[in-house]
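[Amino acid chain]
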Amino acid sequence: MRAEESAGMSESAAGTPDATRWPTAEFPLSTAQLSWWAAQQLDPTVPNTVAMYLDATGPVQVDVLRDSAAQAARELQSPHVRFRLAHGTPVQYLAPDAFTPMTYRDLTGRPDAVATALEWMERDHRTPLNLLTDRL
């Protein structure tokens, strides 16, 4: 039995999560999540993203890398976590459609690829997210 099946989840033949088999339960936020939530409510401009880049040398099989990232997301489940309010209290739940596939940008031809990557990450990191509506 696959881990996804034992957790009440399954994948379609294409490898995408089958929404009809995912658990629908809501879970309370951890103490750390609740503290972060409260901080976001007080100041929505506080960044709540993690930004990083991969400096790969040599040829990259983008499809393999993207598929591996998607598989890790399904197994870890954290990229599928969404938030909503239940009776005024934030709760978390798993949403199979919440995961956005990995973004790939080849910066090989740029004069300063690292500076370009850092600028892109900083811009993404500074963009405020609405924890209830935006893709996380």
Notes: Residues 62-76 form the longest helix (15 residues).
